[in-house]
Amino acid sequence: MTKKTIAKKDINAFVEQLLRDYTVYAPAREANYVTFRQVASPEEVVWDCLVTRKPPKDLFFPQTETLFVYAETADGLQVQPPEGVKRDRILWGIRPCDLQALSVQDSVFDTKDASDTYFMDKRRNTTLVGIGCNQPLSTCFCTSVGGGPFKKEGTDLFLTDIGDAYLAEAFTPKGKLLLGKGSFKVATKADLKAAEDAEAAALKRLPTPIDLEATKQHLDKMIDSPFWDEVQATCIGCGVCTFLCPVCHCFDIVDEGTASCGVRVRNWDTCQYCIYSLEASGHNPRPTQRERVRQRLMHKFNYELANQNVVGCVGCGRCVQLCPVNLDIRQILGGIGAAK
Amino acid sequence: MSEWEPKIAVFLCQWALKSDAAWEQRLDLAENVRVVQAPCSGRINPLLLISALQHGADGVLVVGCEPGHCHYKEGNYVGRRKFATLHSFLQLLGVKEERIRFVWLSETESCSYPEQVKRLQRDIQELGPFELARRETIPCVVPARSVAE
Amino acid sequence: MRQITTEIRAEARRLLENGQVDLVIGFGQGTLPMHSAPLFVQKAVDVERMIWDSFCENNLARYLREVRKQRIAIVAKGCDARSIVALINEHQLERERLYIIGVPCRGMVDRRIVAGCAPGEVLSVTEQGDEIIAAGESFSLRLPRAEVLYRSCATCTHPNPVLYDVLLGEPVPVWAKDPYVYVRSIEQKSPAERAAYFAAEAQRCIRCYACRQACPMCYCEECFVDHATPRWVESGATASGLQGWQIGRAYHLTGRCVDCGACERACPTEIDLVYLNGKLCKDVHELYGFEAGIKVGELPPLAVFRPDEGPDFGLPAK
Question: How far is A160 from chain C (nearest CA, A)?
Fold first, then answer.
C-alpha cells in the first residue's frame, strides 16, 4: 500500500487531469442538495457534503436499466443488449458507508453461481476514490453496524483530510495509477499521525456498536411480535427509505412495447409497496404495512446476515433524514433489543 | 424545418360526424394522422391525450358533439370540464395553447371535419414539435388504414 | 404552542379514558430537530408523548383510510381538516366515527430553508414568539418565523379548521391574500421557460411515490402507474416516464387537492409540486368557484357541470 499526500491547493489540478482520462462522478450540486453525478470540471465537486442525498448506487445499479431491446425484423426477432461502459470511470469521494454498501451489493450481484453482467461491467470499469469522514453527522451511525468513518476496504485510492492536504493511500494497481496524475509527495510521519488523529476525533462523535448477532437472534423469535404493530403504524409505504438506501437492491423487470418491438427494463422496486409481493392470483403474503415494515428490518438485520453473512445496513442515515414520517431505524433497532 | 411533418392524433366521437360521406372518410385523412374513435367525447380519459403526445403526436384534436346534442345527453358536458382543466394545466407546463384543440361539431358542420384536421396540421407545422418528453421506445403501430372497418 | 400541547393531551386523555375513541392520531417528538413525527396513541398513559409545534408538517388525514373500522380522534390543522372534508365528500370516511380535534395553525416551518441558512448541521431548534432559533455546534441563528414557512403555508388561506368537534385555541387571523401567488409567478414565464422548468423538476423524480403515499387524496387501490394493460406511462425513470407520472398525479387531483403541500415535503429530491397541484386548485377555483374540502356535501367539480358554461369549443364563425 502506497501512502502519499497531496496539498489541497493541488487537488483541482489532479481532478482536472482525471477528467481528461476518465469519466468522473463526484458529489455535486443538484437543485438544493448534493448528489453523485457526472462532473465536467473540478469546480463542480462539492467537498463538504458528508452524506449525499442519493447514494452512488445508481452508478452500478441504475434506477432504470435497459436489459435489451427487441424488434421483429425481416430476419426474425432481433435482441440487442445495451453497450457496455465505453470509457473508464472514476467514482470520486465515496464515503466508507457507501463503500461498505457496495460490497453488500457485490454479495448479491456477483456470486459464484451467478454474476450480473450489467452490474459487473460497471463495477469492473470504475476506480473508487474514497474519502473519510472527519465530522460525522448526528444521523450517522456506521459504527453501530460494524463500519467506521475511515474504513478503507474496497477502495482503490482513499483520501483523508489532514488539514491543508489529503493523505492518499493506494491499495490496488488502479489506485496506484492515479497517483501518477497529480502532485503527490511521500507521506511523512506527521501526516500519518494527523490522519490517525482525524479518525480518533471522528470516532468520538459516533455511537457504539450494537450487538448484531444478538439483534439477529431476537429477530429470529419476533415474527409474530406485537412490536411490529406499533412500529408500522405511521409508515406510509413509500419508497424513500429503499431508494435512498445504498444497500437496497430489489428490482422489477418489465417489458414495455408490443409483440413486434420494445424493451425489457429493470426498475428499482421496494418491499414497502403493497404491490411488491402481490401475486397474480390476488394473494398477497405481505398484505399490510405491518408485514412490510417487519420485512425491511428482518431482511437487513436477520436474513442478509443468515444468507450472505453481511448486515444489510451501513448506518449512512439517509432513511433517518428523509423518511417523510420520521420513522427512525435507530429507534427501531433499540426497540428490537428491548422487545419481548 | 421543412423536412419535419407533424403527427396528429384525433380523438373522434363516433356520433360527431353526421353525414355518411364524412363518416366514410373519417380515417382516410393522411399518413401522419391517427384517428382514435370513442363512443363519446366524455369518455376520453385525459391520460389518452397525454399518452398520444408521449407516443409521438405533435398535435391533438378532440372532436365531439355540440352542447345539447350529445347522443348520451351529457357526455360532452362532462368532457368539457376535463378538457378545459387539462388544457390549462398543460399550458402551465409549457405546452403551447394551439397544440391541443377541442372542437364541437354541430350537425351542419360535420363536413368541416377534414378541414379542422388540416388546419391543425398547418398550425402545428408552425408551432414545432411537442415541447415535453417523448417515450424512449415508441412501439410499432399498425397503420390505421389497414384496420378493417 | 405549549398551551396547545397541554390541551391536546388533555383532550386525548379524556377521549381514551371514557372510551369514546379507540385511537388518537397526532404528533409526537421526532428524532430530528425539525420534524415532529406522526404518532398513534391507543392508551391514555401515552398521551404525554403528544406535542404540538411548528414542525408538525405531515397531513394526518392520510392515515384515515387504514383505520376505517375504528373510532378515531385526529389532531387536525387547517389543511388536514380540509382533507377530511374532501374525503367525506368522496364517501371515503364515516363522519360519525371521527372526532376531530381542530387546531388553528400558524404555518409549519420549512426545515429545508432553515438548513439552507445554517453554516453547519442544525442540531436543535426552539421557537420563541415569532422567531425560530436554530443552533448547531458552532452557531446559533435567529430567523423570523414568517420568512421560513413552507410555501404552501405562507400562502394558506384556510389555517383554521373548517370542520371539528372541538377547537383548541383561538382561530388565527388569515395572513395570506392570494393562495395562488406562486402559481401566477410561474404562469408569467414564457412557454419555453415553463417547459424547461417542468422538465428540470421532473427529471429529479425517483418514482418513490412518497408524494402519492403522503397525500390523503391518493387512496386508489390501484394507481394509474401500477396499471399494466395499458401501461399509461413508461415505468422507469425515463424523461417521459417521470413527466407522465408528474402530469398524471397532478391531474388526478383536479378539484381534490387542498394545497396542503405534504407531497412536496415528502419528496426526497425536493421537486416543486406546490406549483403543479396549485395550478389545478387555482383553475377549479377561478373557473368553477370551487375549493376542495371547504363544505361538506359539495360535489366534485369534474362530476358536475352547468350547460351554459364555457369554454366554447364551437367552430369560429367564418
Answer: 20
Q: Do A260 and B136 touch (CB under 8 A)?
A: no
What residues does each domain of chain A span? Answer: 2-60+83-204, 212-246+271-338
Q: Which helix (H) or strand (E) element contains residue A168?
A: strand A165-170
Hey, what's the cell of C256?
381534490
Residue B54's closest chain C neighbor by CA?
C240
H helices present in chain A, as ranges: 11-21, 96-109, 117-124, 173-179, 189-204, 212-220, 227-232, 240-244, 289-298, 304-308, 318-322, 329-338
End-to-end CA separation in angstroms for chain A: 48
Is the bond preceding residue C311 a cis peptide, omega within 30 degrees?
Answer: yes
Residue C272 to residue C264: CA distance in whole angstroms: 7
C-alpha cell at C72: 378515531
User: With contacts defined as CB-CB under 8 Å, which chain B residues touch C193?
Assistant: 94
**CB A30, CB A81: distance < 8 Å:** no
The 3-state secondary structure of A39-96, one letter per residue: CCCHHHECCCCCCCCCCHHHHCCCCEEEEEEEEEECCEEEEECCCCCCCCEEEEEECH
Per-residue pLDDT tens over the stretch A254-277: 998 888 888 999 999 999 999 999
The minimum CA-CA distance between C79 and chain A, rounded to whole Å, is: 17
Contact assignment for B137 to A261 by CB distance below 8 Å: yes
Handedness of CA C211, C214, C217, C218 (dihedral sign): positive
DSSP letters of A217-230? HHHHT-TT-THHHH
Sort out which chain B residues have CB atoms less than 8 A from A256's CB and list them: 137, 139
| DSSP for residue A322 | H
Say how far apart CA C91 and CA C85 lie, in whole Å: 10
What pLDDT digit, counting tens, does each position of C253-303 carry? 999 999 999 999 999 999 999 999 999 999 999 999 999 999 999 999 999
Which residue segments constitute the domains of chain B, with CATH numbers given?
Answer: 8-132 (3.40.50)
Backbone Cα Rg of chain C: 21
Measure A72 CA to nearest chain B CA, in Å. 10
**Cβ-based contacts of B68 with chain C (< 8 Å):** 307
The length of chain C is 318
User: Could you tell me if A305 and A290 are in contact, meaning their C-beta atoms sit under 8 angstroms apart?
Assistant: no
C200 touches chain B (CB under 8 A): no
Q: The whole model's pTM is what?
A: 0.95
Q: Which of A63, A238, A289 sits opposite C237 (nearest CB)?
A: A63
